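All the exercises in this workshop are built on plain-text protein records. Instead of coordinates, the fold is spelled out as a row of discrete tokens. Once this layout is familiar, the rest of the handout is easier to follow. The record below serves as our worked example for the rest of this section.
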Amino acid sequence: MSFGARYYLRRGNIDPFLQAGLNHEINFIGKYHYTIDKVKYVEHHFGSGYNIFRLTANLGIGLSIKLNSKFILEAKYDLYRNIIKSNDDFIGYSILSGLKYNL
């Protein structure tokens, strides 16, 4: 689930923007097993399923280009960071681009 806002720096045929948001993500990891081979013995580790909960904040920049009255080309780059302390200090990014069609 994501909530965000955009602030357009300029309006025209080429519109740069800043974007900020909050994202909530839940990942379920099922039962797992792994083996560690030692010199004299083998260790087997088993685990039951668990959930990973992440609440991240993102900041991004983007560009919206009006091609004509019906089509808009859009590209954006976002950086993500955990805002809840956890064992995995998640940092990520996304790069998206797409073509929008206005009805």
Remarks:
- The chain is about 0% helix and 75% strand.
- The beta strands are 2-8, 14-29, 32-37, 42-47, 50-66, 71-82, 91-101.
